[in-house]
């Protein structure tokens, strides 16, 4: 039997997710969170920001690191740049509700984009 990572989203519950699934997609599809992804999950807009409560991955894509450095952002992560490969607990901080946007954004691809270079 294959073990599935558990995703806990504050205020939503705990969900089994496919190993390696993008966190942005797991939050939206498995947990039912109206997480924003205005750029389509390409590490450009930072609308998919989340905070880790527990289990933050030790690695980061070069694209995520670059966008945070360029914008002076810290203390959050981009859910579009994280794979579900371990149990995590997160807080959704960028949601469609209350954003004034007409929709969450273009659907992110199944794979991390741009192709990940891990730092």
């Amino acid at each position: 039997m294959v073990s599935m990572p558990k995703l806990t989203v504050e205020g939503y519950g705990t969900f089994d997710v496919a190993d390696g699934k993008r966190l942005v997609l797991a939050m939206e599809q498995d947990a039912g969170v109206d997480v924003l992804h205005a750029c389509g999950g390409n590490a450009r807009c930072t609308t998919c920001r989340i905070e880790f409560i527990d289990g933050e991955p030790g690695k980061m894509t070069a694209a995520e690191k670059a966008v945070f450095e360029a914008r002076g952002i810290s203390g959050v992560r981009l859910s579009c740049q994280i794979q579900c490969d371990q149990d995590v607990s997160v807080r959704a901080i960028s949601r469609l509700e209350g954003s004034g946007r007409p929709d969450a954004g273009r659907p992110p691809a199944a794979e991390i984009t741009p192709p990940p270079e891990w730092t």
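The chain has one domain: 6-92. The longest strand covers residues 49-54.
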